[in-house]
Amino acid sequence: MTSTSIYKALQQALPETNILVDEPLKHYTHTRTGGIADYLVLPSTYEQASAVVTIAHKEQIPLTLLGNGSNLIVRDGGIRGIVLHFSHLTAIEADGTRVTAQTGAPIIGVSRRALDEKLTGLEFACGIPGSVGGALVMNAGAYGGEISYVLDYAKLLTREGKLITLTNEELELAYRSSIISKEQLIVLEASFKLETGDYEAIKAKMDELTYLRESKQPLEYPSCGSVFKRPPNHFAGKLIQDSGLQQTRVGDAEVSAKHAGFIVNRGNATATDYVSLIKHIQDTVRNKFNVDLHTEVKIIGED
């Protein structure tokens, strides 16, 4: 399809105001880096999302999902085709001991809604910066908790645009992985089954975890969060620290002095700076400790 015909097809699926052309993705990532998207599409309903996915599948247009950009690096060449962004699907509802949230809702917001409802189980998520959709894809976790412990079911789209519902077990949630990424499914909604608790006890736990996060993580600078997965029998940050890599820079991308597992943007870092620094860290740690560091952050787009 030509660019004109792609745009016309998208106009049939959702309002023109929900279609952005040649949109810089640095405005949508936590690193504040990234090139342009040919089409950034922001559906407001599940039906619109399904229609866009169906168009992409039928016409063989590349389709990329963009959550809230918290654990993501978009290369400087940007992304061709359609980028689907769920910033208009952020509703959070509570019913009894259940909290159900749309894919674009911040997982932090879901944990706060649980607190408001005096529900326990999502305290661990009070400092995770990602969206609900991203949290499910990665089975996000922190401080002894993870999504798999509290998720009941999820509504998703297949790459053909079909709406399906999968249970916790069917999602095959494991350490930083799930069937969602393996099958390239698209999260629309997640429902969490929690337990009734004491408001003050829940709040105290969330306050404690928030303090731990703020005291240990370099939140004063843009970053992509924890860059590397935890290697077996090791901690990535400790290996990087013991390699003498803290405050190592490529351009304006820097290994954080506060937490070696983070790379921060000290000014005008590019995605290329980030990717180059990641490779330097991996090479250094491998040479020094014979340990391979694998990225937790997702790197997408063109150079």
UniProtKB/TrEMBL annotation:
The active site is at residues 176, 226, 296. InterPro entries: FAD-bd_PCMH, FAD-bd_PCMH-like_sf, FAD-bd_PCMH_sub1, FAD-bd_PCMH_sub2, MurB, MurB_C, MurB_C_sf, Oxid_FAD_bind_N. PROSITE patterns: FAD_PCMH (PS51387). Its main location: cytoplasm. GO terms for molecular function: UDP-N-acetylmuramate dehydrogenase activity. It is an enzyme of class 1 (oxidoreductase). It comes from Geomicrobium sediminis. This is UDP-N-acetylenolpyruvoylglucosamine reductase. Cell wall formation.
